[in-house]
Amino acid sequence: MTTSERTINFTRGVPADEAFPAPELADCVTAVLRERRVQVLQYGPSAGFLPLREWVAAHHGVAVDQVLLGNGSLPFIDLLGWALLERGDSVLVESPTYDRTLTLLRRHGARVAGVPITGEGLDLDALEAAVRRVRPRLLYTIPDFQNPSGATATLANRRRVAELAAEHGFWILEDAPYRPLRYRGAEVRSLHELIPARTLHMSSFTKQISPGVRVGYLIGDARLVARLAKAAEDTYITPNLLGEAAVYEFCHRGLLEPQLERLRTLYRPRLEAACAAMRRCLPDAAWIEPDGGFFLSLTLSAGVRAEDLRARAAAAKLNLTDGRGFFPEPADGDRFLRLPFCALTPEEIGDGVQRLAEVVATLARRG
Ligand SMILES: Cc1ncc(COP(=O)(O)O)c(C=O)c1O
After folding, report:
1. What is the structure's pLDDT at 2?
2. What is the spatial distance between Cα 267 and Cα 343, in angstroms, rounded to a whole number?
3. Which residues of the chain have pLDDT under 70?
4. Which atom, in ligand 1's list, is nearest to the CA of 13?
5. Domains 22-252 and 258-366 share a fold
6. Regarding the domain delimited by 258-366, which CATH topology (the fold level of the hierarchy) does it fall under?
């Protein structure tokens, strides 16, 4: 089948199938089953497999009791709902933001308010106004290669966010699963580095190794980490020790950095193909150019509704996600499109953006 006949999915933000280090992981799983049989197969501490906690602690320069491991990183939102939030607490999120976080926060009865995001991070005037208005318990932010917009907060922007947290006493939940996947430019200091006392930093091996290993981590205040570990114990007793031990073995053998380098080499041309296609096919579009991660996003011009666009795109064998799900106020996402580029080849990306441009042009002509 040629690319022109193939359906192109700009839908799920998943790693490329060819990115998984299966042979190395197989060796790691075999080794831990042979050498740590009881430790990884028996019930164990809910805070996670100790050697991996120690590895993460050393990697981030924190104490071991500041590290909690989890079954991926998403469940930390649920645990925070039990251990930190009370029903009716206000939580600020970026608008748009990661849709599953919205679902979990609402499930815990949080009052969620959105703060617009720009190519430089949170809109600081809007953030300050929202902080004064709702007095948040927590700000949830994805400062690096944000899902879904692709934006990265500048250092100045992060410094101001940190100042506001210090001044108004709210917690920051810094969700940073894409941070190691920078394809160009220099790393920006994390919020956890800027204001460690008020920041919970979470990340995951999902994007670095595989979602299937289900290993994530959170670092932060030791007392809060202990409360989260208790909530974890009450929720699932023991974590995924086999996965955590395999990931530990992977990191301990020095395989993580070469794996990240392989990923950057695989994904960089995909980002470049996406940006080149945007410039070529949609020169007038309002879009955020990412420097890493999985996503590029654009906002359609007024008059083009994403719903109509999605229907027409599907007819042209191009699947797009409903952007409204990423917004605390769904109507704000009516013209928003997220394009995940990592699980497509450069050729598919170019073809997909071309099809998108053709559909946009048709709709614009019809007025
Ligand atoms: C911003 C963000 N946070 C958290 C997650 C959850 O990932 P996991 O639970 O696999 O670590 C994702 C997954 O796509 C994500 O994009």
Report:
1. 56
2. 9
3. 1-4, 367
4. 14
5. no
6. Aspartate Aminotransferase, domain 1 (3.90.1150)
Beta bridge partners of 286: 299
Domain boundaries, the chain: 22-252, 258-366
Pocket of ligand 1 (CB under 6 A): 13, 72-74, 98, 142, 147, 175, 177, 204, 206, 211, 216
Q: 114 CB contacts (<8 Å, ≥6 apart)?
A: 92, 93, 94, 95, 96, 97, 327, 328, 329, 332
Q: How far is the CA of 177 from the centre of ligand 1 (A)?
A: 6
**Nearest atom within ligand 1 for CA of residue 75:** 9
Looking at residue 78, its pLDDT comes to: 97
* C-alpha 128 – ligand 1 centre gap (Å): 27
**What is the Cα 11 distance to its own chain's centre?**
15
Residue appearing with tokens 């941070």: 179
- Say how many Å lie between the CA of residue 144 and the centre of ligand 1: 13
Ligand 1 atom nearest to 294, measured from its CA? 16
Determine the pLDDT at residue 3. Answer: 60
Structure tokens at 312: 């027409």
Q: How far is the CA of 281 from the centre of ligand 1 (A)?
A: 30
Burial of 125 (0-12, 13-18, 19+ CB in 10 A): exposed
Closest CA to 289 of 275, 270, 269: 275
Q: Which residue puts its alpha carbon closest to atom 16 of ligand 1?
A: 147
| R_g over Cα of the chain | 21
Pocket probe for ligand 1: among 11, 74, 210, the residue whose CB has the most ligand atoms within 8 Å is 74
Give Dmax (Cα) for the chain: 67
**DSSP readout, 10-38?**
E------GGG--HHHHHHHHHHHHHHSHH
Atom of ligand 1 nearest to the CA of 211: 10
What DSSP element (H or E) covers 363? Answer: helix 346-366
**Predicted local distance difference test score (pLDDT) of residue 301:** 86
Please give the structure tokens belonging to residue 31: 């080794």
Q: How far apart are CA 362 and CA 311, in angstroms?
A: 13
* CATH code for the domain defined by 22-252: 3.40.640.10
What pLDDT does residue 16 have? 97
What atom of ligand 1 comes closest to residue 146's alpha carbon? 1
